[in-house]
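sry for the spam today, last one i promise. struct tokens for design, 180 residues
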């Protein structure tokens, strides 16, 4: 696995949103150790004896560094002349939703989608439920950090487009809401 600067910045963005987090990554050519808040020392020996372990870099210090430049993105090959350009699934769902007057709620990061706050509790929302802009409708989990997803619009849940406990990609449509 090769980590690029964009990957590191995404990890830092996620860690910044968590109250308490600890992360250790070793890809062979790169070692990254990040802590935020109160965390256990479970990963202290990850890089070897405590005396040789690198000091974790505070998230704020790394996020404040503006001399970091992202590498150029790989160039996608254009489709062959006889083949139409593929349309991402999220765009197709979003396009059909807007045609029907529905508002899509999308995943802002590749993550695991959860409809319930815990296995024993009921789902945040069901089809037919009325939601407000600030109603929590699901959770997205990335590396044990959970993000609450708000409805973003006042309306009625028309469709649940993702399956709970499954990976969703950034931009995937999670819900369709009919505005009131």
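last one done:
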């Amino acid at each position: 696995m090769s980590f690029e600067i964009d990957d590191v910045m995404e990890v830092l963005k996620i860690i910044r949103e968590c109250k308490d987090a600890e992360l250790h990554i070793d890809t062979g050519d790169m070692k990254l150790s990040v802590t935020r808040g109160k965390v256990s020392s479970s990963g202290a020996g990850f890089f070897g004896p405590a005396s040789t372990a690198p000091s974790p870099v505070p998230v704020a210090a790394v996020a404040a560094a503006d001399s970091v430049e992202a590498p150029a993105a790989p160039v996608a090959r254009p489709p062959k002349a006889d083949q139409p350009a593929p349309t991402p699934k999220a765009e197709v769902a979003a396009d059909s939703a807007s045609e029907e007057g529905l508002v899509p709620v999308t995943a802002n990061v590749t993550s695991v989608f959860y409809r319930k706050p815990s296995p024993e509790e009921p789902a945040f929302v069901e089809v037919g439920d009325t939601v407000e802009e600030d109603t929590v409708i699901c959770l997205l989990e990335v590396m044990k950090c959970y993000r609450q997803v708000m409805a973003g619009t006042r309306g009625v849940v028309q469709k649940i487009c993702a399956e709970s406990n499954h990976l969703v990609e950034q931009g995937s449509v999670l819900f369709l809401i009919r505005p009131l």
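The beta strands are 21-26, 31-36, 103-106, 111-114, 130-131, 136-142, 145-150, 155-160, 166-168, 173-179. ok im logging off now
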